[in-house]
């Protein structure tokens, strides 16, 4: 069963790394929205294409509160929950199977 345990551990590490990278993408995208960057810049377009599918549904349900877009904060909280719950659970399962 140690092979399955190692598999769960590896999947947990990959998910953790992907969620960490996505966290930074959301943070950078939120910071860029404060300075009004060039919309034709390829980096800005990439960040918009990657983060907007997650942020737009949150924004449409919650809206803008007091003139501030809180969708990045809610997305970061959801990512933190996934990292703690999903990754932690996978790591725990992997350790029990070893």
Features:
single chain, 98 residues, mainly alpha, two-stranded antiparallel sheet, 3 helices
Question: Over all CA atoms, what is the radius of gyration?
Answer: 17 Å
| SSE pattern | HHEEH
Got a strand count? 2
Largest sheet features: 2 strands, antiparallel
Please state the oligomeric state of the protein chains shown.
single chain
User: How many structurally independent domains?
Assistant: 1
Question: How many DSSP helices?
Answer: 3
- Percentage of residues assigned to helices: over 70%
Mean pLDDT equals 92
Distance between the termini: 7 Å
Low-pLDDT residue spans:
none
Class by helix and strand content? mainly alpha
Strand order of the largest sheet: 1-2
State which percent range the strand residues make up.
Answer: under 5%
So what's the overall shape?
A: elongated
Polypeptide structure, described:
With 98 residues, the chain is mainly alpha-helical. It has one domain. The chain has 3 helices and 2 strands; from the N terminus they run ααββα. It has a two-stranded antiparallel sheet with strand order 1-2. Helix 1 crosses helix 2, helix 1 runs antiparallel to helix 3 and helix 2 crosses helix 3. The longest helix has 34 residues. The relative contact order is 0.20. The model has no long low-confidence stretch (mean pLDDT 92).
In short:
It contains three helices and two strands, in the order H-H-E-E-H. It has about 100 residues and is mostly helical.
